[in-house]
Amino acid sequence: MLRHYKTVNNQIPQTEDEWKGVLTPEQYGVLREKGTERAFTGEYWNHHEPGAYVCAGCGAELFTSDAKFDSGCGWPSFYEALDKSKVEEHIDNSHGMRRIEVTCAACGGHLGHVFPDGPQPTGLRYCINSASLGFKAK
Ligand code: FE
């Protein structure tokens, strides 16, 4: 499914009110409030078409189907980002855990977390909320 990105005058929204105007409540809750969708409920955990996964906030291409793998965790999982520069990592000590949060480098939106239990060649598992993503078929 190709989503179309609403923006404010073709700019990335600058205020939370602007973000609320362009995102669905579910997207807002994940991207801007760092929420997590329930496992096995999102649009892409079981999605296998070839193409690019883009940020639902700003449209930046973040991951490709080539690096997607079936993790069994109920969220879309990738062993690497399209490019290291596309995502940023932050220490997240919330919920009594020490995790690495992943955000979109272009708009700062929360995407999910990266864990060191993925497959080769990287050994990483980018565990990403479907609500943070859109998809462009190849
Ligand atoms: Fe973004």
From TrEMBL:
Entry's family note: Belongs to the MsrB Met sulfoxide reductase family.
MF (Gene Ontology): peptide-methionine (R)-S-oxide reductase activity; zinc ion binding
GO cellular component: cytoplasm
Presence of the UniProt keyword Amino-acid biosynthesis in the record: no
Cofactor names: Zn(2+)
Pfam families in alphabetical order: SelR
Organism of provenance: Fimbriimonas ginsengisoli
Protein name: Peptide methionine sulfoxide reductase MsrB
NCBIfam families, per database record: peptide-methionine (R)-S-oxide reductase MsrB
Active site residues according to the UniProt entry: C127 (nucleophile)
Gene it is expressed from: msrB
Domain MsrB span(s) in chain numbering: 16-138
Residue positions binding Zn(2+): C55, C58, C104, C107
Keywords: Metal-binding, Oxidoreductase, Zinc
Record PANTHER family: METHIONINE SULFOXIDE REDUCTASE (PTHR10173), METHIONINE-R-SULFOXIDE REDUCTASE B1 (PTHR10173:SF52)
Cofactor note (record): Binds 1 zinc ion per subunit. The zinc ion is important for the structural integrity of the protein.
GO process terms (BP): protein repair; response to oxidative stress
EC code(s) of this entry: 1.8.4.12
Keyword DNA repair recorded: no
Catalysed reactions, as listed in the record: L-methionyl-[protein] + [thioredoxin]-disulfide + H2O = L-methionyl-(R)-S-oxide-[protein] + [thioredoxin]-dithiol
InterPro entries: Met_Sox_Rdtase_MsrB, Met_Sox_Rdtase_MsrB_dom, Mss4-like_sf
Enzyme kind, highest EC tier: oxidoreductase
